[in-house]
Specification:
Helices cover 41% and strands 11% of the residues. With 740 residues, it is an alpha+beta fold.
């Protein structure tokens, strides 16, 4: 304990004040700035800490990639058009006032050196105002405005709403504008030079901000500090009623455990706020301290509040405010960036959907899916969070737009996996399947799959985009020649050349082109995609799978990546994984016909014939492969089954479905042979029935006669003489026994 240095005083310094004379120590007016960043302790509802900045310009180095992948948001309301989010009731502003505005003792720290201050001792409560015993800097945790104060002759203070790392937040009434409710936000500690600087910066930035999901700033006013008469600045903001995401996340179950938000609702909240962050980034600003506390759900709208940590992207000198558990790990060394902003979004989503120790044990990482079941249940969501919170900023999403697009894809997948209802949407990353593969009942070859998979979209801002559009209809061989001699050798031209080289089986040339592109931009996921396609074209499914796994980690909301992974797993004999990925694609988007046929194929191979039939019968009648799917379902009911496995109902359903399809003679006849053959085997094992099937009596003689007619029909349609002879022989072998 330090003895008071004032002459004649026998007191000791406690919490910055002398216990006898009550005066501050002589050192109170001095104090060196801290040499290390603060620890990020939280204080109140707008928590945060500061750290110095030494940003390396990473955001600008990735601007080209962000531009290539940017997209206009398609969301127009909370829930992304996919989720019904209950509206938040409007809160009476007067009911939100704090009855006893005070900063809790465990959250009192010196704004200069981060040492604990204002702590109680020996049963005595700590002081709300004083001087730091470690560095002598003055601290104050009392509101500077009182109910009834009139600020700037216009704003009547009603009380405190909250307190935080950057200042007290007061509710006031604007007497100059219809007595509307407003919020005044000032400094928590007027002796904190960095906080004062942040407030000045906030005034400058917020005047430029105008977005429906960001709190509106009305004014900036000043008012004297009642303690020392110094001038204190206050931001005048719109009052936003409702509940913060932190409050919405604060419910508890019967065992007093925090209850996470429903996954779809949490994703919807993040999707709603990402355009606001994208807007800030677009006007050259960083939010820096995104967390559940700073997002308010009011009625049917979400708003970002507490913009005190906002700073310009090119600001390399100002302190960066952050909150432990949400802040990116590189802030102290590299400073804030778009990537660090998006990191906080990923952390916020993780905190909203699961209970885990995000401030200590998992401060800089996510729990393993075994410890966080929601990640095991929704692997695409897991990959989204892994990319969002990757320790390396260059591996994270490059823009809020790209992040939102991938998260919307994840949301569609989550919802479809719950209720089985597809949620299709055009991809901004891929085109459609070039052709469906595996629709004839057998697995396709690796080369066939490589030529069928979707192709990444061309960046329309590329200088050669128009040239590529005019050459899209050329056959691959001609396209190789055109692209190899293109007047512009842009990245898009070279990627399209790599694709064309794969299509003409010049895998060495494709790898050479892709290798050079990788050296120039190792973060372009399309390079890994084309390497995977090239590996498939070379019949190396294992290498292809590894490439597509890498793409899945970068664009987890894309069905195309899961379709490619499903095909690779099927080729490698991993039917469980193949079924998993085929199912993810098919449940989400019924436009991927290959996924339906692939899932049915691996389910049959796994012994789940009923599941395979159900999938094939889900193909809508508007799909181009509807007839093929129905024929495959008919075949699945009867093909390669023992008479004891086929039921009478299976035969009847197969015949009924076949009779409803509009088929050419050859396809109808071949399918009829499958059904009649199965029926004949059933009759031989179980005896005849007094009914008919495809106009054939369910007897040995009747079914033999039907099969004979079918084979003779195919013989008449055969172009090859040898095949015609074989079909006639087959007809003779199955014909009913007769005396003639």
């Amino acid at each position: 304990m330090t003895t008071c240095a004032r002459p004649g005083c026998s007191g000791a310094i406690e919490d910055g004040f002398c216990s006898v004379c009550g005066m501050a120590p002589a050192m109170a007016s001095v104090g060196a700035p801290p040499s290390t960043p603060s620890t990020g302790r939280t204080t109140g509802s707008s928590t945060g800490s500061t750290t110095g900045s030494s940003r390396t310009g990473r955001s600008s180095s990735r601007s080209a990639r962000a531009s290539r992948s940017s997209l206009a948001t398609r969301r127009g309301r909370l829930g992304a058009g996919l989720v019904e989010v209950p509206p938040a009731p409007q809160r009476d502003p007067a009911e939100a006032l704090l009855a006893d505005p005070e900063v809790a003792e465990p959250k009192r720290f010196c704004g200069n050196c981060d040492a604990p201050v204002g702590r109680g001792r020996d049963g005595k409560p700590g002081r709300l105002e004083g001087f730091c015993a470690q560095c002598g800097t003055r601290y104050s945790f009392t509101p500077k405005l009182r109910p009834g104060d009139l600020v700037s002759g216009q704003y009547e203070v009603l009380g405190c709403l909250a307190h935080g790392g950057l200042g007290w937040i007061y509710l006031a009434r604007d007497h100059n504008v219809s007595d509307r409710w407003v919020v005044l936000k000032g400094l928590l500690d007027t002796g904190d030079a960095e906080a004062a600087q942040a407030a000045i910066a906030e005034r400058r930035f917020l005047a430029e901000v105008e977005h429906p999901n960001i709190v509106r700033i009305y004014n900036f006013v000043e008012h004297p500090d009642p303690l020392d008469g110094s001038t204190v600045g206050y931001i005048v903001m719109e009052y936003v009623g409702g509940q913060s995401l932190k409050e919405l996340r604060s419910g508890r179950d019967a065992a007093n455990h925090l209850v996470p938000l429903p996954i779809d609702q949490a994703i919807a909240y993040v999707l709603e706020v990402l355009p606001a962050l994208g807007y800030l980034h677009g006007v050259g600003l960083l939010y820096c301290d995104f967390k559940p506390d700073n997002v308010i759900h009011s009625a049917e709208q979400l708003k970002l509040i507490d913009l005190g940590a906002v700073r310009r992207i090119d600001d390399e000198d100002s302190a960066v405010y952050k909150t432990d558990g949400y802040a990116a790990p590189e802030l102290a060394e590299q400073g804030a960036s778009i990537e660090s902003d998006l990191y906080t979004v990923g952390r916020t989503l993780a905190v909203l959907i699961a209970n885990f120790d995000y401030t200590r044990t998992y401060r800089d990482r996510l729990p393993d899916p075994t410890a966080m079941p929601v990640l095991a249940d929704y692997p695409s969501l897991h990959r989204f969070l892994l990319r969002s919170t990757d320790p390396d900023p260059d591996n994270r999403f490059e823009s809020a737009h790209v992040m939102a697009d991938q998260l919307a894809g994840v949301l569609r997948e989550v919802l479809a996996s719950r209720d089985g209802q597809p949620r299709p949407a055009p991809s901004t990353m891929f085109g459609p399947e070039r052709r469906a593969f595996g629709i004839n009942g057998a697995a396709s070859s690796p080369v066939e799959i490589a030529l069928a998979l979707p192709v990444p979209q061309v960046d329309t801002t590329d200088a050669a985009a128009g040239f590529l559009a005019t050459s899209a209809a050329l056959d691959p061989a001609r396209l190789v020649n055109v692209l190899a001699t293109a007047p512009l050798r842009t990245q898009e031209v070279r990627l399209k050349l790599a694709q064309a080289l794969i299509d003409v089986s010049d895998l060495g040339g494709a790898e050479k082109e892709l290798g050079e592109l990788f050296q120039e931009d190792p973060h372009d996921w399309r390079i890994s995609w084309y390497r995977g396609v090239a590996a498939l074209a070379g019949s190396d499914a294992r290498v292809a799978r590894d490439c597509f796994v890498a793409v899945y980690a970068l664009v987890p909301g894309e069905p195309a990546t899961k379709l490619a992974l499903a095909a690779c797993h099927e080729l490698l004999g991993d039917l469980g994984s193949a079924a998993h990925f085929y199912r993810l694609v098919w449940r989400t988007d019924h436009d991927y016909a290959s996924a339906a046929f692939g899932l049915a194929r691996v389910l049959i191979a796994s012994g789940d014939r009923a599941g395979a039939i159900a999938v094939l019968e889900e193909v809508p009648n508007t799909a181009s492969h509807y007839v093929g799917a129905r024929l495959a379902a008919v075949s699945a009911r009867v093909r390669d089954r023992l008479p004891t496995e086929v039921g009478e109902q299976d035969l009847a359903t197969a015949a009924d479905q076949l009779s409803t399809l509009e088929l050419d003679v050859e396809r109808l006849t071949r399918s009829s042979i499958e059904v009649l053959t199965a029926a004949h085997q059933w009759v031989l094992a179980n005896g005849p029935l007094p009914s008919s099937l495809l106009n054939c009596p369910l007897t040995d003689r009747g079914l033999r006669g039907g099969l004979e007619r079918c084979y003779r029909t195919l013989a008449r349609l055969a172009d090859d003489p040898g095949n015609r002879v074989r079909l006639v022989d087959r007809a003779n072998s199955v014909r009913p026994v007769s005396w003639v």
